[in-house]
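Model it.
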Amino acid sequence: MILAGDRLLGRLGEGLKPDREFHCLDWLVIVISAPRLSSLSFLHKFMIAKSIAFLASLAGLIVLAISEGAIAQDASDQSLCPRPALSRVVRHTIAPGETLDSIAQAYGLLPATLMGLNPALRSGKAPVGQEILVPPYNGIRVVVPAGQTWRDVADTYGVRADALFEVNGCVASPTTIFVPGVNWSPNTPGAQYAAAPPTPQRYLTRYPLPSAAQVADVYGWRVHPVSNEVAFHSGVNLQAAAGTPVYAAGDGTVAFVGMRENYGNLVVINHQGGLQTRYGFLASMQVKTGQTVKAGDVVGAVGEGNLPSPSLDFEVRRNSDLGWVAEDPEPYLREMGRP
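Modeled.
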């Protein structure tokens, strides 16, 4: 830097005109060579002083802009994240005449949700005067094992990692979180934190194809077999020849028939127990919206789909305050009867 300054001072000695353009960095380099300034004229010293003042003001503006940008970014990030679900839990004191069912109905929840958060309710009774915790929607409270990430927890409970992240206030390192759309069950060790096992034998009783099929695309986070992009898949693709009949997985009512982006030709059936099944990429659809179907009724035929070979895109979803939340179809498929 000093050698560069000496060269610049040499240029000044050659006769620098007042209207000659110099980069601000040139003046800064000259300042670093301050011992040579005594040989400059008053005009040159004046120009150097102005440049120093300009650089100082410019540096101040840069620092201010950076700090203000950081503050704005922090404020924006906070505004995009809702309050964590567990911070929105309310307290309810059980009044005479109230039951577990009536309290759950008043808050639009399942009784199992209240039982999961409140051990005092797990007998099925509602003790008068007992204070209980009521979450904003159905789900379970989970203590996150050390070292697990949002994706690990999401995979464990079959929910979307991005939705789980936002529901819990976008906390980077979770410890105790709320998993929405998962039912509490007393059947697993650590019952307060256990998800209810699916019960397909009650409502979903029929495999959607004539025979067990190979899974061409799995449920959850995976690399898409065609696009090679990491994305969440809310169902499974069951490989089958084009034109293979597709059956209703259970008794229910047809909620939708038509074309949908990411599904192609789609049939949606609502079942008892808050369950819903979806049948995507059909070559044809043989039911109508509002129609009542029985398990095993033909709803359509397998189409080409969005994979290299024909397949049925099959989903199982459960109703919740967050909408129809996707569940892993595999446990259901394993228990379904074959024709």
